[in-house]
Amino acid sequence: MVSVVRSVADTLAGAADPQRWLEHLSASQNEADRSALARAFNCARELYAGKRLTQTGEDVFSHAVSAAAIVADLDLLTDAVVATLLFAVPDFREDWHEWMTNEFNPTVVVLVDGVNRVRRLTEIARIDKLDTPEERARQAETMRKMLLAMVADIRVVLIKLAWRTQTMHYLTECPEPVRRAIAQETMDVFAPLANRLGVWQIKWELEDLAFRHIEPENYKKIAKLLDERRLGRIDYIARVLDTLRGELRAAGVNGEVAGRPKHIYSIWKKMRKKNLDFSELYDIRAVRVLVESVKDCYTVLGLIHSMWQPVPGEFDDYISHPKANDYRSLHTAVIGPEDRVIEVQIRTFDMHEHAEFGVAAHWRYKEGGKGDAAYEEKISWLRQLLDWREEVSDRSGLTDAFKTELFSDTIYVLTPNGRVLALPSGATAIDFAYAIHTDLGHRCRGAKVEGQIVPLSTPLQNGQRVEILAAKEGGPSVNWLHEGWVKSHRAIAKIRQHIRLQNADAVRESGRQLFEKELARHPNLQPNLAALAEKLGFARMDELYGALGHGELSIRSVAQAIESFAPPPPPDIAPEDLVKRSKGGHNAGGILIEGIDNLMTQLARCCKPAPPDAVVGFVTKGRGISIHRANCLTLKRLSADAPERLIAADWGEQKTSVFPIDIEVIAHDRNGLLRDISDVLSREKLNVIAVNTLSKDLKARMRFTVEVRQVNDINRVLSHVLDLQGILEARRV
After folding, report:
1. Residue of 31, 46, 95, 134 marked catalytic
2. Which keywords does UniProt give here (predicted)?
3. Active site residue 314
4. Which overall architecture, per CATH, does domain 659-732 show?
5. Which CATH class is domain 219-361?
6. DSSP secondary-structure letter at 571?
């Protein structure tokens, strides 16, 4: 904090002669910056000639130079000053973006674009039309957050604050309705925003100027009670600070001293809040001393009390007894030079940093209300950045430091009548509709964004104006949830609640269809449904269907539960390792078992082996040897538990002339499909001993059990089946 904050009015006075201001500013710049400033200044003067601002009627060029003077005083680098001079170019040149890209560096273009967007949105998002103070307060808070969230460079917000400050200085020339509307918006939105960012000189100026137009009688009353003009108060504080610095040096205390005169609005606000008379205020003039240790705090307190007489009852020790928010400092009031009361605050540098950027931050204390820890942490970071900018030796790194994405987790969009809504990042028009009203969300069927119709799934962006296209009646779709089109907790809860209140049977049926569709995607898995329901936390499948229909259970969770019933992958069984030529005879079934004769064998029903499939035997308990195909999944599962029961087998001399095998056909369902497939099988002289068909979602899945002499016989048959109309797949199971 500088020793005495320079008045914005003084800065504006220096900009009264634009050419002289430019020369004064350019004297401290390098050649590249001087050139950019001169080009921007001359372009603005030529382009803005004879132009006036629509809302206030102020000369555009005069406004631009005055606002640029404020930005220059804030030390935000030359790019920001250039952008402020050119802030109105988009109003007068359609090709401004291309022109500016050719004339200036990319940072200037980004800043001008950001300022233009902020200016346009603040003209649309009005709070003066809202009915109650509570609604206006909520809208103002949302607007402040929107301004921070929608800019890629924090300097855009500071340029907007400088622009508004100049508007407030010109406001006396405007009609009363315009003055009051702009002043109220300034008090509600822009002064608190400057306060949060720690830009005190702008904050105080905005508050006093807004107060002057909102409460003109009270403003004049406080102004008369002050026994000196502003410049006189500033000069008085400067002399007090010089005296304090001399005393600290004499006492060997290292410290910094700063001070300010209290402003008219803050005086009135304190009088009203604490119900005090003007004579009871002791902090009209305030001084702050920062030192290195707690011991130094009390040393400085003693020095001050020895220099000037303390005011009885006006000493508070918040170091020994911190406030609830851990604010620590010494506060005292003394009768200073010329018998004028001065408030003095004494604290260490660490205490000051905590007061400015920690949980005891001044802006939160002043504004009150409920805190948002995440938001406050972001504000703290921005304030530290702005506080450090004057101490950074490498100025080239500041441009990147000013870039911010701190507020990217929330977006802010506008209704057609200018109301600002906060939504989570990635939100769609569905979230927007439910944020306005639940019934509108239910009936939402489409949306216009900036006048263009867009799909409901389109993510919204900061600053967009959205209009909902709604049906006269109707309800939400569960697919909004399943497709991930809804992001806000409110919208999700309202959709689920609505669906839950609808016909329970229809909801369960919808859920059952979703479940069966997912189950069909895993044809090789047949989970126990009761166990699956229990795994997902439901007592019965009906409850699972209901939750799925309501959107409370995701398809992904169902898929994972189904897949969990897949058997563990058994060790691979290589047929060449197990199938050996037997030295023994064959049994009655024509199967050779290595070294053994006349054993009872049976062909496994799970895989239905047939010559010349590679086969392996598995010794069962009481049913002889079951013969499986070497790649049978059931065999792999059995062998994983009891590998010692595997036995090599081969086809011997066959007495059985035919073997049953399964084939599966998947096709688009149509009339005559089964007849056409049966005709192919009949022409190939295959005996069909079983048929199982399932039709769903216009697709048919058919399984045929046919008798063949050799597996190779089936390949020709399958190729003929594939030639039929609508066949998607034909294979041996």
Report:
1. 95
2. Transferase
3. no
4. 2-Layer Sandwich (3.30)
5. alpha beta
6. P
